[in-house]
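FAQ

Q: What does a record look like?
A: Structure on top, sequence underneath. For example:
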């Protein structure tokens, strides 16, 4: 690696060097390499940057770490720049430092590994600088309206100024220190300073977490150049640390997606940026968990244990708050910082600790009580939706979900954010307490009521004695009502029986008949499947028998090989034993010769010759064994190299196949593109039929009926989602033609040959055939649409023949369309669309098949939404084909490079094989030569001198004979050993064949079991289906039987009804009976209303609705209840007649005594009631104060909201409906531009996405001005905004943060940082007030590592 230059002079050595960088060119993950050149060296914020220009005209400024990763090596005739010292590139980032935190003016610095670039988006031209400046109307000041009193101020007193006061105090303090801070910029005179115009940026995917340079360092440089034209830091001072209650840092361990992560926050504005899934929101959940929120209040989990990272046992969260100034909480104990530590166990349970500035635990009573006291002291309420606007809350307010009541949501956040809801709840609680007091007063009233009831009871007794005559009239009325109620009941029963017998019964019989037809069709299908399973099981049984016989033969072969090995082992053992005997005999003879050699010199000489000969033979055999080992080693190496070369050959073949496939795809795409371009928007071009259709038109008179085709040009779909699915099923016929007769087919065939129209068929169809009938039972069930349902053929003449052809060939009425792959699997595996549906296709073109007992899935990767021939827009298809051509060309180049490298590797491996073959042959030649030399040595016996002594001569002869036999048996032993090795290999090979046969047998046996189980399952289903069919038959027969019984019961009911009418007419006429029923109904209603009035008076129960009251009366108007009432009246009459002899004077005396006691109790009750009324009046005054405060808050929020909306030239106001708990934002978009033409918009869905998002952010800021929490958190506030509204919303946020300097703002966004830089620069130029870089701290979060 080349060392990093330390100075600009050293860096200039790389000017003119070439670079090659990969960029992401679209959202589908395709990449392309671009060549470039280093043109000059520039310096930003003290960092050396390399200005690159690419071949497509794009430019880029990058640091050394990125530059070295794309730098191309120098040619051999050039010399590299001199050594500049050790490299400063880091080897990597640990998990704890995997996040990047930089100040606003230094967003260009990064600490990363060697970049792994991805393909870029094409650069977007920047708008003119004037378009980034705010309009003159954007400086409209806030209305001169003081902020309303807040409920939070009653707790904190004077610990924090109001929003307006805080901003004024901050400006005054900043004005007193104006000019005290000087900035010194270092740099070399010969290095050009970059500006907004000469530092273009690339939209890159190399470092996804790196902030864009627009408005960053370049913006700071522009601000520095304009410093002389306006005052700096006018009315504003940046704090070095936070105020009391501000968050200093957040650290988590094993929390959600983070293993170990720490976030340092700035004292004013902290902007946290990161891609989705990087763990931004996890930091917010950590803050909520530490600062008193429950798991449910975070809206992310039901218990704290869910926050523990998967695989860990415990999570820890640390949140450090500033504790300085006069608002400090117990500064003597905690110091300038308070750290809240919360540990969470995965098994359940949490623990809270409070740490001082040194990290030591502080114990003041219970930690939780101390924590809540501290939060109350700092006015921190993380459950307030405006203190922490979570990602879910931001999505809820910024999305266009029409399923939610947005007005209710806005009202709720207004009430909760301003703490008015808490005040309202307190008022309601006081009302409940007052109601309890009233309840106790009601108990006293109940006692009075009981006395009054006793008094009324005595009065009733007197009254009943005088009203006994009225009960007689009531009894006559009820007698008439009872008999005619019986008549009405019989008539209603006859009507119900008639409806059941004439309507519902036949309908139910028809339903059972249809069910039996469907079950019969399902039974036929299952019987067909059972037949197929029987064939498969029989075939598997034959295969099992064949495999079993094969295994038995192989086992016999193993036994034969084992017997042969045993025989060879015995031969080798016999040869070895015989050789050992000869060697013993040789030793004996040598002993005799040794004794004789001391006497006879010739014997000694002969013995020496024989020993030397034997030693030579032994040495030669050792060399021969070594040669054998070399042969085996060389053979093993050759076989390994051969296997490697074969794998490379296979890979080379696969590579060539991929190249061939890529070339075919390229040619197909090119041919399709040429056809579309030649057709000039006509769909015929997609099928290459333009020339053929021209010939058909020219020869139209020669055809008996006009040909139909290509078929794909006639077919479309009702929903574009199913275009790929339709082409997957019908793709083989889209280029085909339909004609009416053979003569037309012959003529069309000649025209196809003349036009060069190949790969198409001609189908003869009778144009006069009617449409095929499609029974409903053939359609897919279970809610799956059929392919036939989505096909559209607009041509009237072609519709019937074409649909008939598609039904005949593809059975499109039985093809089920599945939304997802899982639902497609359910069609073939679980018969989700019915047993008659054996083919399904999903939206991506994946097909799901079932045939007999087999099921399989086929994925078609060729057809997609980009090249679908059934697409309606040929322009889009042409653009897609061009993009596919570019991608395919790039992929083809890469495949050819891979193939070239693979061919080179294979050639090198073949060279290694040749060398290994040569070594193998040399080893075999050496082995052969040594074996030949050994045999010659054995054959060339030594010449032994004759010995004169006859006895010695005999011994010498024996020695020579034994020596020769030893040589022969050694050779025999070698032959036996070789034969044994061969037999051992044969045994091993036979065992391997047996194992392979057993494995195949086991697999076949398992498959047979599966098929048998499938057959059993079909048999069981067939049995169940038959049982269902029998049950349906029985139920239908039962329905028919019940229907007959119902008709007989209807006749009997009619007879009973006639008898009842005859009996009732003997009592009174029908008119009198109806009048009696009406009067009885009125009496029952009067009684129930009296009862309701008493219940409402005594128990406070609500009245019944008119409908409920009517239903209760109807229930009581039946003959049984009326007869019961008649019986009760008769008993009352008897009872009153029995009591009629009582003394009325005694009842009057008892009434007088009870009246005096009741008067005394009423006086006491009146006194208590007066006290309760006074409390009620106090409660009413409190409610009025609440309404007054509510009105002030509404005015303030309205003014704030109007001010924020005027920044975008909109007019806005807020309307509250407290009765319905609704809040409406009224907006006049661009009212200042349109004037009187502007209209009020109350439904935000009418606005654009950016306007709606900006309006909601303005509303949240307006409401947030009423809260006293020392910090504000917003998660993904700009996720649905367009760039202009995102910039204006960011300007509004920054201006709000500057005006409310006492508050700390924490903003999370998945967007890049360019909007923040542009917003900051615009705000500086608009307000003529500098905003130092330290005012905004940016934090870039990379995705958390496991």
């Amino acid at each position: 690696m080349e060392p990093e230059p330390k100075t600009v002079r050293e860096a200039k050595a790389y000017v003119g060097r070439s670079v090659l960088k990969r960029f992401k060119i679209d959202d589908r993950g395709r990449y392309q390499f671009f060549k470039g050149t280093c043109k000059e060296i520039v310096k930003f914020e003290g960092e050396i940057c390399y200005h690159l220009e690419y071949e497509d005209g794009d430019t880029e400024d990058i640091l050394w770490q990125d530059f070295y990763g794309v730098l191309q090596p120098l040619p051999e005739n050039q010399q590299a720049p001199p050594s500049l010292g050790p490299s400063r590139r880091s080897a990597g980032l640990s998990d704890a430092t995997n996040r990047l935190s930089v100040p606003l003016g230094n967003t260009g610095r990064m600490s990363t590994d060697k970049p792994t670039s991805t393909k870029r988006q094409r650069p977007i031209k920047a708008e003119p600088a004037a378009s980034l400046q705010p309009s003159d109307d954007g400086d409209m000041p806030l209305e001169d309206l003081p902020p309303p009193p807040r409920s939070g101020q009653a707790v904190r007193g004077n610990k924090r100024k109001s929003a307006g006061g805080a901003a004024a105090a901050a400006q005054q303090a900043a004005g007193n220190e104006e000019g005290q801070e000087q900035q010194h910029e270092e740099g070399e005179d010969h290095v050009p300073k970059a500006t907004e115009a000469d530092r273009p940026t690339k939209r890159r995917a190399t470092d996804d977490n790196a902030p864009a340079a627009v408005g960053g360092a370049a913006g700071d440089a522009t601000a520095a150049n304009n410093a002389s034209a306006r005052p700096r830091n006018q009315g504003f001072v940046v704090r070095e640390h936070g105020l009391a209650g501000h968050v200093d840092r957040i650290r988590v361990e094993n929390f959600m997606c983070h293993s170990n992560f720490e976030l340092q926050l700035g004292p004013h504005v902290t902007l946290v940026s990161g891609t989705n899934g990087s763990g931004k929101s996890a930091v917010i959940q950590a803050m909520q968990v530490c600062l008193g929120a429950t798991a449910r209040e975070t809206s992310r989990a039901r218990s704290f244990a869910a926050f523990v990272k998967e695989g860990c046992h415990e999570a820890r969260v640390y949140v450090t708050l500033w504790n300085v100034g006069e608002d400090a909480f117990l500064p003597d104990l905690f110091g300038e910082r308070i750290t809240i530590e919360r540990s969470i166990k995965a098994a359940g349970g949490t623990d809270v600790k409070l740490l001082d500035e040194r990290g030591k635990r502080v114990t003041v009573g219970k930690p939780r009580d101390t924590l809540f006291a501290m939060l109350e002291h700092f006015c921190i309420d993380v459950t307030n939706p405006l203190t922490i606007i979570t990602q879910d809350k931001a999505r809820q307010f910024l999305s266009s979900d029409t399923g939610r009541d947005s007005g209710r949501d806005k009202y709720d956040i207004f009430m909760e954010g301003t703490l008015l809801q808490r005040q309202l709840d307190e008022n309601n609680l006081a009302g409940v307490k007052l109601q309890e007091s009233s309840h106790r007063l009601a108990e006293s009233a109940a006692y009075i009521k009981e006395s009054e009831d006793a008094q009324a009871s005595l009065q009733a007794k007197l009254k009943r004695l005088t009203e006994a005559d009225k009960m007689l009239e009531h009894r006559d009325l009820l007698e008439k009502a009872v008999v005619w109620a019986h008549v009405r009941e019989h008539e209603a029963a006859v009507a119900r029986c008639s409806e059941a017998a004439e309507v519902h019964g036949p309908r139910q019989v028809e339903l059972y008949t249809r069910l039996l037809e469907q079950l019969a069709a399902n039974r036929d299908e299952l019987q067909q499947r059972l037949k197929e399973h029987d064939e498969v099981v029989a075939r598997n049984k034959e295969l099992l028998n064949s495999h079993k016989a094969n295994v038995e033969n192989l086992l016999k072969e193993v036994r034969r090989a084992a017997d042969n090995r045993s025989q060879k082992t015995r031969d080798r053992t016999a040869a070895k034993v015989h050789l050992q005997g000869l060697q013993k005999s040789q030793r004996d003879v040598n002993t005799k010769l040794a004794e004789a050699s001391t006497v006879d010199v010739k014997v000694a000489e002969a013995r020496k010759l024989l020993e030397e000969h034997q030693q030579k033979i032994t040495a030669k055999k050792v060399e021969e064994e070594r040669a054998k080992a070399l042969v085996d080693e060389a053979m093993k190496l050759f076989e390994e190299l051969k296997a490697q070369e074969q794998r490379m050959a296979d890979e080379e073949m696969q590579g060539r196949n991929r190249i061939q496939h890529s070339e075919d795809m390229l040619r197909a795409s090119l041919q399709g593109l040429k056809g579309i371009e030649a057709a000039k928007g006509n769909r015929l071009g997609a099928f290459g039929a333009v020339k053929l259709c021209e010939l058909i038109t020219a020869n139209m008179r020669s055809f008996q009926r006009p040909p139909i085709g290509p078929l794909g040009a006639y077919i479309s779909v009702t929903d574009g989602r199913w275009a790929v699915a339709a082409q997957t099923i019908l793709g083989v016929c889209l280029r085909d033609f339909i004609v009416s007769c053979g003569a037309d087919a012959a003529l069309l065939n000649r025209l196809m040959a003349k036009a060069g129209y190949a790969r198409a068929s001609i189908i003869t169809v009778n144009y006069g055939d009617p449409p095929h009938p499609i029974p409903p039972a053939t359609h897919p069930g279970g809610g799956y649409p059929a392919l036939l349902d989505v096909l559209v053929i607009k041509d009237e003449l072609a519709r019937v023949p074409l649909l008939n052809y598609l039904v005949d060939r593809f059975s499109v009425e039985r093809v089920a369309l599945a939304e997802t792959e899982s639902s497609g699997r359910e069609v073939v595996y679980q018969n989700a669309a019915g047993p008659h549906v054996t083919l399904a296709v999903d939206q991506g073109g994946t097909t799901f098949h079932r045939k007999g007992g087999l099921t399989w899935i086929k994925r078609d990767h060729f057809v997609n939404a980009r090249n679908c021939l059934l697409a309606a827009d040929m322009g889009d298809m042409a653009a897609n084909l061009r993009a596919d051509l570019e991608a395919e060309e790039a992929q083809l180049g890469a495949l050819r490079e891979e193939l070239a490298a693979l061919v080179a590797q294979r050639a090198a491996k073949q060279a290694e094989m040749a060398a290994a073959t040569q070594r193998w042959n040399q080893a075999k030649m050496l082995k052969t030569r040594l074996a030949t030399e050994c045999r010659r040595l054995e054959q060339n016996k030594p010449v032994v001198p004759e010995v004169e002594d006859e006895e010695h001569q005999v011994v010498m002869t024996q020695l020579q004979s034994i020596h020769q036999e030893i040589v022969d048996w050694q050779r025999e032993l070698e032959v036996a050993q070789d034969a044994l090795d061969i037999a051992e290999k044969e045994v091993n090979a036979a065992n391997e064949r047996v194992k392979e046969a057993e494995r195949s047998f086991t697999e076949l046996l398992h498959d047979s079991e599966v098929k048998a189980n499938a057959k059993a399952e079909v048999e069981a289903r067939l049995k169940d289906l038959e049982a269902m069919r029998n049950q349906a038959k029985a139920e239908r027969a039962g329905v028919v039987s019940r229907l007959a019984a119902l008709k007989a019961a209807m006749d009997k009911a009619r007879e009973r009804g006639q008898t009842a009418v005859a009996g009732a007419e003997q009592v009174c006429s029908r008119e009198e009976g109806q009048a009696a029923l009406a009067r009885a109904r009125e009496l029952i209603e009067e009684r129930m209303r009296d009862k309701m009035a008493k219940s409402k008076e005594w128990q406070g129960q609500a009245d019944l609705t008119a409908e409920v009251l009517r239903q209760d009366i109807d229930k009581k108007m039946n003959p049984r209840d009326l007869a019961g009432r008649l019986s009760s009246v008769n008993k009352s009459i008897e009872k009153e007649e029995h009591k009629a002899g009582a003394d009325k004077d005694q009842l009057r005396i008892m009434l007088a005594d009870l009246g005096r006691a009741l008067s005394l109790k009423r006086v006491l009750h009146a006194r208590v009631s007066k006290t309760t009324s006074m409390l009620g009046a106090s409660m009413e005054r409190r409610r009025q104060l609440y309404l007054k405060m509510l009105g002030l808050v509404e005015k303030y929020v309205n003014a704030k909201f109007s001010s924020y909306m005027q920044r975008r030239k909109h007019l806005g106001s807020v309307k509250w409906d407290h009765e319905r708990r609704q809040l409406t934002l009224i907006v006049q978009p661009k009212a200042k531009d349109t004037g009187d033409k502007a209209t009020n918009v109350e439904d935000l869905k009418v606005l654009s996405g950016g306007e709606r998002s900006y309006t909601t952010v303005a509303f949240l800021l307006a409401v947030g001005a009423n809260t006293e929490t020392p910090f504000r958190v917003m998660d993904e506030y700009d996720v649905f905004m367009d760039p202009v509204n995102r910039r204006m919303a960011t300007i509004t946020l920054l201006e709000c943060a500057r005006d409310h300097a006492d508050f700390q703002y924490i903003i999370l966004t998945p967007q890049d940082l360019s909007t923040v830089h542009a917003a900051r620069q615009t705000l500086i130029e608009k307000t003529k007030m500098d905003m130092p870089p330290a005012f905004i701290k940016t934090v870039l979060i990379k995705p958390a590592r496991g």
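Q: Is there anything notable about this one?
A: The longest strand covers residues 31-44.
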